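Supplementary Note 3. Input sequence used for the single-chain structure prediction.
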Amino acid sequence: MAGALRSRNRRHVGVAKEEPVVAALDMNEPTSDLEIYSKEVLNSLIADNLPPTPNNFSLYFDRLLEDKSENLRKQIYSVLELEESNDDENTIMLEQSLKKGFTSVKSILSVTANLYKNMALMTKILDKRKKELEESTEANAASGVVASLGSDVSKLNTILKKQSSHMKILYDDTANIVKSVENETIFDNKFGVYNKRYLMTKIEQEIELITEFKHKSSLIMIELSRELKESVNNEKAITLMTRTIARLLLKTSRRSDTVAHYGNGLFAMLLKHTDIASAKKASERLCELISNSNFFLADREILLKISIGITDITIINSVEEVVVSAIDGIEKAYSDKKIDFAVSQRKVTETPIEK
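The predicted structure, written as discrete structure tokens, is reproduced below.
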């Protein structure tokens, strides 16, 4: 890298043209399986008339790897794990830490409120005992002591009340800060995937990339079977099953895919550089994987089932229209009891939508 920088600097001052740095790389004789595969990825990009940018290379790297042998996949994945560095993951960790901190502040406020209640209760008990002592003529001295103690407790109670009020103000300020941060978050804590905001941003970016490079990408929406939810009729169990589906989606997704929770237990997977035919194959694999997963509710074994809607991402539809189209695919799948996934048959507009 340093040599490349020096080479560029010398050219700027009029030095004679030098041999390009890349000429030093022997691309004709790769020495390892990883180099051979990398060259294949690069050739595929060029054959598809796509620029070999880092993003496109990463997408094709993941996509072509699916058709390779299990040994090669394991070898390459082991290398990738060593160099894995994801800014989104760092952001997610930051969001989780922030929310944990907010939870701690909330707990402090709760403890303070309980302390205040206990002090108030102690004051009532002291008043009761004071009355009991006043009714006894032999307890004048003790009554004076209780009165003095009651005065001290009253002062302490006043101080705690002021501190509690101040803590509530701090808590409200913290809540407002966290709420403003949550409006910019990309992670869904409940299901451990990206959130709707992040999904919509990624779809918008993908539409722009498709406009530029003319490739094909797809969106699939995944939902826990409504019939299954009706038969279970247990909110807690449904939530656990939905979380199981979220974990399976993450487990089977490629690094280039975006898995997100759209809302109300409805998930989405943005499949980059994936046409409808490939999206159908991916949906079939997902349905098969999840149908082979079981869930236990008390002594009852339940086989999981999902419904999937598929749509292509086009430059003539808005982000919202793409999402609605995928949801329509789910409805189409429900209308035919024999299928678990379906491609949306929406009518698209004839002219590009103004953004």
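Confidence is low (pLDDT under 50) at residues 1-27, 349-355. The chain has three domains: 2-83, 88-182, 188-343.
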